Structure prediction request, 446 residues.
Amino acid sequence: MSFQSSDSSQREKAEETLVEVSGLKKHYPIKEGILKREVGRVKAVDGISFEIERGETVGLVGESGCGKSTAAEAILRLEEPTDGTITFDDEDITEYDDTELKSFRREAQMIFQNPDSSFDPRMSIGESITEPLRIHGVGPREHRLAIASDLLERVGLNASDVDRYPHELSGGQKQRVALARALVVNPRLIVADEPVSALDVSVQAEVLTLLKDIQTEFDLSILFISHDMSVVREICDTVAVMYLGQIVEIADTETLFEDPQHPYTRALLRAIPTIDAGTRGIDAALSGDVPNPSDPPTGCNFYTRCPEVVQPEGYDFEQENWRAVMDLRVALERHGIDVEGLREFVGLDAGDSITPQDVEKMKAELRREHDIPPSLTDSAAESVLEEALDEIVRGNGASAEALLAREFETVCGQSEPSLAESAAGHPTSCHLHSREVTQTPPLTDD
Ligand SMILES: Nc1ncnc2c1ncn2[C@@H]1O[C@H](COP(=O)(O)OP(=O)(O)OP(=O)(O)O)[C@@H](O)[C@H]1O
Prediction:
C-alpha cells in the first residue's frame, strides 16, 4: 500500500488496487423484550478504510474482539455491511446481486483458524478439494482428482494424499489442504483468518513460508488476520492495527515495527514475548479491560487504557501517575467505586459513623488499589485528587466524578482523533499527533 499522495502515485495505486474498503461498518443490533425492540448496537466494525493491492498481503491485527473477523466477513459479504463500500477490481461488491456474489466468492476465498470445521470427515481429501469444481460441473471425476493431486504437490503434500481422509492428517497438513481447496477455483484474494494460530510454532513457520510461495506463484492478494504481531511481521507487507472496531494505525510492516506511532501499537509490540523477558501479554502492558463495543468511550476509543494519554493543561504529572489517576476516574465513570468494600476494609459496620482516621485509611487504600502514590509531586493536582478521594469515601461518587472530569480534562476523553498522517508519514489516529497538541512530543516507552 502506498501512502504517497502525488498524482503519479495515485494513478499507479489505482491501477494496482484489487480491494478498496471505504468507511466499512458492521453494527449488530441489541434487541430486548417480546417486541424485540432495538436498545443498542454492538459496533463490531466502525468505519474502517484500507486497500489491498495485487500481490500484496495486508494484515489486520489487534486483540480478541476488536472486530477483525467481522471485518473479514463483511468484506466477503458473508455478513451484510451496515455502511461503507467495498470495491473489488473497481466494482462495488456491496451492490452485487446473488449471481454476481456467487462469482465474486470464487475470486475471494477464505481460510479459517481451524480447518476441521470446514472439512466433511466422510469426504476424501481429493473430493474435499475439488468439491467446488464438482458443484460447478467441472468434470469428469478423474480430471478433477488430477487437479487435486497437482494442487496437493504445490502445497507440499503428496499427490497420493487425494485418497486420504481428514482424520489421517496433522493440523499443519490440514491447513495445506485448506489452501489447496481455496486455490482450486483460481482466486485472486485469500482472506486468512488466524490461519496458523492453532499450529505449533515450527509448523506455523512452514505454513507461512508456503503461503508466501503460493502468493508469488498465483499472484494472490491476501488479507491476513491475526492477533500475533510476530506472525504478522513474518508475512505482511502492510499492517492495519485495529482497536474497538476502528483502525488506529496503518503502515508498511517495517515502518510499523520500527517506528510505531500509536500508543496501542506500541503496547502490542511491547507485549510480544521475548527470549529474555518471556511472555508479558497485552494485559500487562495496558491498564483496564477492553471496553464493550456497544458502549465505547467518548473521545478516543483507547483513552481509557492508553499509557500515553494526553495530560490536562496546567498540571505537571509523571505520566505513570497521571494514568493511575485516569484509571480511578474511568472506574468512577464506568462502574463506580465499591465504597462498602472500603468501609469493611477499615472495620466499619453499616450505620457506623466515619472518623477522620477511617477517612484517611480508606483514601490510602483507594490510592493503593489504583497504584496512585501517597502524594503527587504536583501540589495543585494533589489537592484536586485529595478532594475527589474525600468525596468518594464519603459516598459522593458523582461529585468526585464531576470534579475529576472538570479539573483533569483531557483532549483524549473529549474528541475523537481522526486517522491522519503522523510525523512518520503514515496514518495514525492519536491526539499526540494532531495539531492541538503538536507542542507535546510523543512519549517513548522508557
Ligand atoms: N453476530 C454477532 N452479534 C453480536 N455481536 C457480535 C456478533 N459477532 C461478533 N460480535 C461482537 O463484535 C465484536 C467483534 O468481534 P470479532 O469476532 O469480529 O472480533 P475479533 O477481533 O475477530 O476477535 P477474535 O480474535 O476473538 O475472533 C465482539 O465484541 C463480538 O462479541
User: Anything to note?
Assistant: The chain has a mean pLDDT of 89. Residues 28, 42, 44, 62, 64-70, 227, 293 surround adenosine-5'-triphosphate (CB under 6 Å).
